Amino acid sequence: MSQWGGGAIGLGLNFVKLVAERHGGSIEARNRLEGGASFCLHLPVEV
């Protein structure tokens, strides 16, 4: 489980990665110069 604030154990992003990969997608994380990180979820879409 993940929780906002101190003491998080980080399973949230692992779960997102698993779901994305099962749907043929991926998740990308980037450091931000201002601090923190940004995340991008890529999922294939049929058009």
From TrEMBL:
Highest taxon of the lineage: Bacteria
UniProt-recorded Gene Ontology molecular function terms: protein histidine kinase activity
Catalysed reactions, semicolon-separated: ATP + protein L-histidine = ADP + protein N-phospho-L-histidine
EC number(s) per entry: 2.7.13.3
Enzyme class, UniProt record, top EC level: transferase
Domain Histidine kinase/HSP90-like ATPase residue range list: 6-46
A Pfam family this chain is assigned to: HATPase_c
Family annotation (InterPro entries): HATPase_C_sf (IPR036890), HATPase_dom (IPR003594), Sig_transdc_His_kin-like_C (IPR004358)
Name of protein: histidine kinase
Organism name: endosymbiont of Tevnia jerichonana (vent Tica)
